[in-house]
Amino acid sequence: MSIATQIINNNCLPFPKILQLEITDRCPFNCPQCYRMSLADEDADINRLKSLISYAKDRGTTQIVLNGGEPLLYKHIEELLGFLSQINIHVNCFSSGYGLTDEIIKYLHNPFFNYCVSLNGSNKAINNLSRCGFEYAISAMSILKSNDIPFGIHWVARHDNILDLPNLVSLLETKGATFISIGSNKLTHKREIDSPLSDDDFKELVRLISDYSGPIKIFIENCFPELSWHLGLELKSRFSGCGAGRTMCHITTDFRYAPCTHLHYYEEYPSIEEYWTDSHMLESIRKRNVHDTESCFNCELINNCKMCFAASNESYNNPNVGILGCKVNSIKVGGRNHEV
C-alpha cells in the first residue's frame, strides 16, 4: 500500500490545513530560547511564495502562519500581506513587534489576520531571561490598540516565568490584548531545554489558568496537550494534539519541507503534495507507537497519544514515541484530579 493511500488511516489530512512559512531569516535579536541554530539575511522568493500559497489554498489549506526570523523584516512583506488580503485566507503572524510600521498596520485591518506578539514576561527582566525586544513588544501592543486592531501574545511556559503569569495577564488587560496563546518549552538553538517546568510549576500553571475569569481568552497550543488534559479539555479528536505532519507542515526560506518549525528533518520535494504523500519521515511520525515507551504503559491516553513530536525527538531521538517528564500521569492536578 502506498503512503498516499494510508494517509487517512494514519489520522492525517489528505493535504495540510496549516502551512508554517519561514519567510525570512532576518532578525535583530538573539533570543536565548530561539530554536534557530543560525540566522542569515535570506528571504523567500516572493513569486514562488505566492504561487505556493495559491496552490495550497486551492487544495485545502485554510491557514498561513508567518514566522522567521522576524517576519516583518521580510523585504517583500507589504506585497505578501497585500496578496494574502486579496485571497481571504486566515493568517497568523508571530512577531516580536520589531518593524511594525504604519505601512504594515494598514494590512492588519482584516478579519482574516491574527497578529500575535512574542512576550514571555510582564517586565523586561523576566522577559529577557528567554526573549529579547521587550520594549518593541510593548510598543507594538500600544500601536495595535490605538489602531483598533485585535491582537494577542504568545507566551512560553517556563520555570522562570510561571509566577509572573498573573502580572502578565494584568498587563495584557491594560494594553487591550484579546488572548494569550500558551506554548510548551522546547529545545533552544543550543539543543537543550532552558528553564524546564517542574511538577510544582506545572501544578501552579494549571491552578492559575483554572482560577482566571477575566476578559483575556487563554488558548493552549496543540503542542501542549498534557496541559489541555489537566485542564479538563478532551483530546478525543483524531486531529487533537500535535499536528506536525498530520494537519500542518513547515516550509523554509529556501523551500525545503519539515513536519513543523521545531522538528528539523528537512527534505526537498517538487511540491507540497509530493512531500505530504511521499515523505518517509512523515510516514514514520504518523505511525506513533507509544507502546514502545515504558513510562507510557499504564497511561489512559496510550491509544490516543498526540504529544509533541519535537518533544518526543528531544526525549528519545525518535519523534514517534512518548516524552520524558510527561505530566499526564506524573502528577494529579487540575480538571482531571483536583489535588493542587
Outline the structure in words.
- Helices cover 31% and strands 13% of the residues.
- It has one domain (12-287): Aldolase class I (TIM Barrel).
- It is globular and about 55 Å long.
- It has 340 residues and is α/β, with parallel strands linked by helices.
- The chain has helices at residues 3-6, 46-58, 77-87, 102-105, 124-127, 134-146, 165-175, 199-211, 225-230, 272-278, 280-285, 309-316, 327-330; strands at residues 18-22, 63-67, 90-95, 113-118, 151-156, 179-183, 217-220, 248-251, 257-258.
- A nine-stranded mixed beta sheet has the order 7-6-5-4-3-2-1-8-9.
At CATH level 2, the architecture is Alpha-Beta Barrel
Largest sheet: 9 strands, mixed
Helical residues, percent? 25-40%
CATH superfamily label: Aldolase class I
CATH class membership: Alpha Beta
* Biggest sheet: strand arrangement: 7-6-5-4-3-2-1-8-9
**Series of H and E elements:** HEHEHEHEHHEHEHEHEEHHHH
Strand portion, in percent? 5-15%
Mean pLDDT over the residues: 87
State the separation between the terminal residues, measured CA to CA: 49 Å
Specify Rg, calculated over alpha carbons: 20 Å
Give the class from helix and strand content and strand pairing: alpha/beta
| Tally of DSSP helical segments | 13
Which descriptor suits the 3D outline? globular
Provide the CATH topology.
Answer: TIM Barrel
Work out the count of structural domains.
1
How many runs of DSSP E, i.e. beta strands?
Answer: 9
| Regions with little confidence, pLDDT below 50 for 5+ residues | 1-9, 334-340
